[in-house]
Amino acid sequence: TALREVAEETGIDNLYILRKLPKTYHFFQSRNSWQIKKTHWYLMKAESIENTTPCLAEGITRVSWFSREDIQRLESESYRSVKALIDYGLDLL
Fold it and tell me: DSSP string of 3-72?
């Protein structure tokens, strides 16, 4: 399911999962009540990153690749739960 989702949203269909990462949870308000969303994350590798196609219908306007340094810099703009996930994933690389 995760491979299909990433392929649909990025156009990259030559992916494979290296490892399952920790889940994250976040809260959001919907129809005057609070909801919790559980997100499953995976460390993936692509055999090729050519021919990416962002899924505009999902609000995805760009597919980008970042260096480790860029990721660490962008981490400061992320949610706390995602920061921990980024650190965990970078330690695996």
Answer: HHHHHHHH----EEEEEEEEEEEEEEEETTEEEEEEEEEEEEEES---S----GGGT--------HHHHH
- Using alpha carbons only, what angle is made at residue 82 by residues 80 and 85, rounded to the nearest 5 degrees? 115
Which residues, in sequence order, are CB contacts of 70 under 8 Å at separation 6+? none
State the pTM of this model. Answer: 0.77
pLDDT tens figures, 23-81? 988 888 888 899 999 999 999 988 888 888 999 999 999 988 888 888 888 888 887 87
Measured in residues, the chain has a length of 93
DSSP state of 78: S
Residue partners of 77: CB distance under 8 A and separation at least 6: none
- Are 17 and 3 in contact, with CB atoms under 8 Å apart? yes
